[in-house]
Write a structure and sequence with these properties.
The chain is α/β, with parallel strands linked by helices. Helix content is 62%, strand content 11%. It is elongated, with a radius of gyration of 35 Å.
């Protein structure tokens, strides 16, 4: 009875220790896996920011979101659930196998025979499994990309009444994903039961061998029961091995999509020994050639010099290369040949962050973040005071409409500036650039979304803002560029004319024709160009 009580106490102690270790393991794994996925997500997000603009142009936003969120989460789940379970099952298999060999090595061989056969079969299916899960995760990312694309343009969808078309487009992508999922489940739910037959045969062979040993008096029934009990503990890990390749393939496919981003190298890199000159705004383009595709030039042999504080108007047809010139100045891309210099220093030698922090940009397509108006304006200069923000908004002709709102500068706006008109968004964007107080100012159709009256106010503000700064102004409304110090006319990627409004107008060339076309268009609308 004392021995029996001791065994019961020992059993209880073991179970208590198992429960305690399980709790500690779960807490440790939860912390470890969460830290890993956090570091992975942050690393991927940081790497996306470090990549060149061409990388984000080549990838759908929804697909990148899926990789940062869903794929990293799948890696976490594998580490948290499968990682330790794999170790547990392997140790169980090893320990029980050793004990079975100790009891009866011949019968032990019968038990473990299926293991190498299962490994060989799983290796045979490895390539097919990997392909299935890569396609699954690729389609999952495509589903996210299509959904994000449709929801982002929902106003356009409703405007053109194409809801049914977009629903069908999303259904088609989801249908492909569904069919692949069904095929995957059918494959695994067919293969796994067939493979488990091997363990069933092994168990039957074990019972047959054990029965023969008993009949011959070489083993008693108790030993056989003990042996089969331990043998059943091996079948658990063996069956786990059958389903493990599926989990591994799933996690590897997710990890591959994540590391596909991390393995990409930015095309635009900072110099190993960068320079941070005090920028005054003298800009020089020297024989610049660039193409988004190396064999298809967008800009060819562009050469000109801009003095510090000079205002330059960029003129040309849509697609002529005006925005590309600005993208090169911001160093979103590097020229294929030639140089761009600021105050005599090659842009490639200036750190990207340092360069862009000293250039103010107002784009035609404005973007405002979800937050208050004050937070959106202060985005360009986080340490600015409220008085500085108000002054910038007054210069951008935005203060009056902001004060009419319920919460004035604390008014909350949605992502992209929802709740504001196009002109209001553009004026807030302009205020953001003014607050930055940049040495170089870039205006890309900065007044395209405002009415004529508001445009006049903003033009006056821009004249004040441009004073003493090097300014590049792109505008299709050529009358807004009359006061520019010089105009640069781009056609088919070539600099064809340069000079003041009067000088190049007198040439009766490209600029003259553009001006006349616009003048006739204004007459047709009942407006006269002064």
């Amino acid at each position: 009875m004392i021995l029996f009580a001791f065994v019961i106490l020992a059993y209880f102690t073991c179970r208590a220790m198992i429960a305690l270790i399980t709790i500690l393991r779960a807490r440790l794994l939860a912390k470890l896996s969460s830290n890993i996925v956090h570091d992975l997500r942050v690393s991927v997000f940081e790497h996306i920011h470090a990549m060149s603009v061409s990388f984000t142009n080549d990838h759908k936003v929804g697909d990148l979101i899926s990789r940062v969120s869903n794929d990293t989460n799948r890696v976490k789940n594998f580490i948290q659930s499968e990682g330790t379970e794999c170790i547990n099952q392997f140790l169980t298999l090893l320990a029980v196998a050793i004990y079975l060999f100790f009891i009866n090595w011949k019968m032990a061989l019968i038990v473990i025979v299926p293991a190498p056969l299962i490994v060989l079969l799983m290796r045979a299916f490895h390539r097919k499994t990997r392909k299935i899960y890569r396609r699954l995760w690729r389609l999952s990312g495509k589903c996210s990309a299509v959904l994000q694309d449709i929801l982002s343009g929902i106003r356009v969808v409703k405007t053109f009444g194409t809801e049914e078309k977009e629903i069908e487009r999303y259904k088609a992508v989801c249908s492909s994903y569904k069919n692949l999922c069904i095929g995957n489940e059918v494959f695994w739910n067919t293969i796994q039961p067939l493979i488990r037959i091997l363990t069933t045969f092994s168990h039957l062979a074990l019972m047959l061998a054990g029965g023969m040993y008993i009949l011959r008096g070489r083993m008693d029934a108790g030993t056989l029961v003990q042996f089969t009990t331990y043998a059943s503990m091996i079948y658990g890990p063996i069956n786990y091995m059958i389903s493990l390749p599926r989990s591994i393939a799933d996690a590897v496919a997710a990890a591959a999509r994540v590391f596909d981003i991390l393995d990409n190298e930015p095309k635009v890199r900072d110099a190993e020994q960068p320079k941070e000159p005090e920028l005054r705004g003298r800009i020089e383009y020297r024989d610049v050639y660039f193409g988004y595709k190396s064999y298809q030039g967008v800009l060819e042999n562009i050469s000109f010099t801009v003095k510090s504080g000079e205002m330059i108007g960029l003129v040309g047809h849509s697609g002529s290369g005006k925005s590309t010139m600005i993208n090169l100045l911001l160093r979103f891309y590097d020229p294929d040949s030639g140089q761009i210099l600021i105050d005599g220093v090659d842009l490639r030698e200036i750190p990207q962050h340092y360069l862009r922090s000293r250039i103010g940009v107002v784009l035609q397509e404005t973007f405002l973040f979800s937050g208050s108006i004050f937070e959106n304006v202060i985005y360009s200069k986080p340490d600015a005071t409220r008085e500085e923000v108000i002054r910038a908004c007054k210069l951008a002709n935005a203060h009056d409409f902001i004060m009419k709102m319920d919460d004035a500068y604390d008014t909350w706006i949605g992502t992209g500036g929802k709740g504001l008109s196009g002109g209001e968004r553009q004026r807030i964007s302009l205020a953001r650039a003014i607050l930055k107080d940049p040495k170089i100012l870039i205006l890309d159709e900065a007044t395209s979304a405002v009415d004529t009256r508001t445009e006049l106010h903003i033009q006056k503000a821009l004249e004040q803002l441009s004073h003493g700064r090097t300014t590049f102004n792109i505008a299709h409304r050529l009358s807004t560029l009359r006061n520019a110090d010089r105009l640069i006319v781009i056609e088919n990627g070539n600099l064809v004319e340069m000079g003041t409004h009067a000088e190049i107008y007198a040439l009766e060339g490209v600029y003259y024709r553009l001006y006349q076309i616009q003048k006739e268009a204004l007459k047709m609308r009942g407006l006269e160009e002064k």
